Amino acid sequence: MEKLLPTTQKTSHRIDILSKLTWQLRNSDLKKALSYGLQHIALIRKSGNPQALAQANNYVGIIYRNLGDYSQAMRYHYKALTLAQQHQVIDQKAYCYNNIGDLLGRQGNLLDARKNIQRAIDLFVQLKNDRGEAYGYLRLGEVLQQEGKYDEALTAFFKALDLRKKMKAAKADLSAPLQRIGVLYGVQHKYKEAMLYLGKALRQDVVNQDIRGMCSVQNDMSAIYLQQNKTQEVIRQATDTWQHASEIMAKPIMYRTARLLQQAYEKQKNYVKAYYYQQQYVSTLEDFLNEQRGNQLDALRYSHQLEKQQVELDLKDKDIQLLQQAQKEHRLRQSLVYALFAAIVLLGGLITALVRGNLRKKKANHLLQNRNQEIAEKNYEIVVQNKELHAQQEEIRAQHDSIELQNRHITQSIQAAKTIQEAILPQEERIKQMFEQYFVIYRPRDVVSGDFYWAGKVGNTRILGAIDCTGHGVPGAFMSMIGFALLNEIIKTKKVTNPGEVLTRLRLEVKKALSQEETRNKDGMDAGLIAVEDQSDGKVKVAFAGAKRPLWYMTKDCSRLQVVEGSRVSIGLTYQDKRVIETKTYLFDKGTQLYLSSDGFADQNNVARRKFGTKRLLELIYMIGKYPLYKQKKVLDNDLDEFMRDTEQRDDILLMGVKL
């Protein structure tokens, strides 16, 4: 079509070619698409066919949306809507409402977005336009998903799928609704259904030979494998995606693929490959952002250039009109000269006509000078704007480079801190040697954690503790390292096994380590500690002490989870507090289940900002208490994931359970 365009003279054919080129290039070459789109609008105006202008403006609005310029996109869509309403082009009116709804949704105005999209769907139904209706339901599903209305969003996506299956005029694109259904099932943790529909979308893209679409779907599948901790599947799938995406240089897909590979290798503790793919992620993302900024700047420059050309064209039209007027006056003068030979009495009329003609010419020349001045001023403004845009681009690039460098250094440092923390803090293998059945739910809010657990043996005494340090992230991690080192010294070196005495000494040592008497530093920790000894009569002796943390236990015949409150004393937080940390001792039957935790699980909020709550947590543990502890962990993990869906983790989380 591009080769055909320069040789095509007929206006209607040129308009058709420009329309097709604009639409086909709207996602791949935004500069060309904008060029053809604006030429398309100019040619339609010249041809005097205002009914076709609505679609042309809609196309340009979509291109500006893809450039990220939502303000310009909205301007063209509203211009298209006005034209569609004036000339009763109902299908374009519907597409306008749909495109406006899409833009509002991208900017977070979900209520107005839904209203506009529903208007579009109603019009498409009235027109019996299945293609437009399917497109509307896809957009409606996206907005409903943003609102967290997952069931309604699924209904909309399935409606779009059914409509596209019914379409007979052209080959229906089923991949888009299938992919959206699969992704939404993944958000709901319905992994079996998610993989089923993503697999169907992938097969559709293979049939259509859509490499970009295949890579996008494979990334969605890899993300679901990652949620399930199937890291080997992530690596297998994402490595294949990386190869295909690199061949077509699909940067948005490449940086997402690199991020998935980085996260998978991190989970496998393969930090060399994780670091490699983190570098690929940052590099590809930076290239993509630079290309986007370049595209936006090129498109803006072209828009200014075309505006300048339009002004020049307008002036040429004005020159033609002036020339035609001059020719007309010349013919009039000839007529007057001929008439002079016939009648001298017309001489005065001829002179009058000539004077008027000269006046008109002077007036036209004056108008032309004014227009030339306006063009010069506009050209100057464009030059100034281009300089400002270039300066802004340089500033943004410098800021971006600086931020990326800082982020890289910080990420590397924190990853190194995580490696050190994981190497020093106890592994689950130590707890496994002490208890036949156990579980540990350990979720740092950031890369490193302020929560930690301590496990070890002194003689025949098994000691287990859950400690919650002030803060999270790097500050919390420093406190956890201090606490772990002090507990090692108190229990392993000094052989102190009484939990109350251990926590009392820990309290004193934290004060010394942080010089709290002098600095008035208020950092510290809450803790729960148990010491377990088997008795000769088959019973198990459990000594417990808590610093603002309880012990929960469940015997075989109890009607609810039992709570042993810790002492109302923090470690390291108060200076003159003389209260002691009390040890409480119990004799339990074998099979009793004990639980220690930080406050992170109970304090986690959902999307409505309501906490999970201690009461709900105790009831859940009691309800699943009959299961083996490994199964209890799965239920607790799944319940927490479901509760905190679509929101962020607010604190470090630690919850442990053991069976005597």
UniProtKB/TrEMBL annotation:
Coiled-coil ranges from the UniProt annotation: none
SUPFAM superfamilies (UniProt xref): HCP-like (SSF81901), TPR-like (SSF48452)
TPR repeats: 54-87, 134-167
InterPro entries: Bact_Sigma-Reg, PPM-type-like_dom_sf, PPM-type_phosphatase-like_dom, TPR-like_helical_dom_sf, TPR_rpt
SMART domains hit by this protein: PP2C_SIG, TPR
GO molecular function, one term: phosphatase activity
UniProtKB keywords: Hydrolase, Kinase, Membrane, Serine/threonine-protein kinase, TPR repeat, Transferase, Transmembrane, Transmembrane helix
Residues in PPM-type phosphatase domain copies: 433-660
Protein name as catalogued: Serine/threonine protein kinases, putative
Pfam name, any one: SpoIIE
Transmembrane segments: 336-355
